[in-house]
Amino acid sequence: MTVVVTTPTRTPRLPSKVKPATIGARTKGRTKCTPAKTPRKTSGKAFALAEQAERATYAQSLFDELNRTIFAGHLPVETSLVWSKRLLTTAGRARWHRSKEGVQTTSIELATKILDSNERIRNTLSHEMCHLACWVINKDPKEGHGKIWKSWAAKVMRKRTDIDISTRHNYEISYPFEWECGNCAKTYGRFSKSIHPERVVCGACKTGMLHPLFTVRSRMATTPSKSGRRTIATSPRDPSSDPPRGVQWG
Fold first, then answer.
1. Residues 180, 147: one domain?
2. Spatial contact of 203 and 210, defined as CB atoms under 8 Å apart
3. Strand, helix or coil at 82?
4. From 5's CA, which of 13, 188, 190, 239 has a CA 20 to 30 Å away?
5. Residues 73 and 177 in one domain
6. Residue 144 CA to its chain's centroid (Å)
7. d(CA 200, CA 209)
């Protein structure tokens, strides 16, 4: 009698479900990384700061070049270029001081809100450097726009034909906020919304109402105070006493 021995066949085990790999975990020698974030758009403030930094770099390089090629390096190399937001009626201003010990301090202020192009920077900075040359090189602290200053200005313009230096030069300022008189069409410009048409009248015709030339957001109605009183301007202010639109040299 023949006995046949059979071994039971084993049912193959199905692979278990693979758990999803977590972000950053290693799977089979590879590392899954998080997807790159979409870069944020550059804000207007960041763009303005970057633009101003470029102007400051350009002004400093121009100062070094003119001092080397025209003023023979006799202007103090430590002269500071100070960008000021408060200069609204002059594009630039040179400063020179000598202490009792004979130590000289020099600086040039440049108007941030007026010098918005390389051309204006060239003309203004070279103008103020001519003032420093009169005071430092020629040792004449009383010199303004006389013969000595004009001789330096002519020397600069002969060397650099892209620079135009004059004793007075008006710059038209680009104001972000402007108002126009509805009567005489006179325009007032400001760097902030400092003119309130409901409180002032035109300073030229004395009667016209000022209308904003920019989009004005509607204000929410204010809740009256407990006393029920509201302060109202009794006499409109005249905005003509504010600084003019034209800018002159310092």
1. no
2. no
3. strand
4. 13
5. no
6. 29
7. 8
Q: State the Cα–Cα distance between residues 110 and 60, nearest whole angstrom.
A: 12
Residue where a domain stops, chosen among 105, 138, 168 = 168
The range of the structural domain enclosing residue 184 comes to 170-215+244-250
Please say if the pLDDT value at position 223 is more than 70: no
- The whole model's pTM is what? 0.61
- As a whole number of angstroms, the distance between CA 94 and CA 19 comes to 72
227 belongs to a structural domain:
no
Decide if 185 is inside a domain.
Answer: yes
Provide the pLDDT for residue 84: 92
Within 8 A by CB and 6+ apart from 119, the residues are 162
Same domain membership, residue 146 and residue 156? yes
pLDDT of residue 139: 94
In 85-147, DSSP assigns E strands to 92-98, 104-111
CB 174 within 8 A of CB 182: no
Is residue 45 pLDDT above 80, yes or no? yes
Closest CA to 80 of 69, 101, 91, 94: 94
Please name the helix (run of DSSP H) or strand (run of DSSP E) that holds residue 30, with its range, or none: strand 30-31
Rg, the chain, Cα only: 35
Residues 6 or more apart whose Cβ sits within 8 Å of residue 99:
105
| Closest of 85, 88, 18, 80 to residue 52, by C-alpha | 85
Asked whether residue 23 is domain-assigned, the answer is no
Q: Which amino acid is at 117?
A: S
The Cβ-side half-sphere exposure at 129, using a 13 Å CA radius, reads: 35
Q: Which tokens hold the place of 64?
A: 């070094």
Range in 47-51, 56-60, 230-234 with the lowest mean pLDDT: 230-234
Neighbours of 40 (CB within 10 A): 7
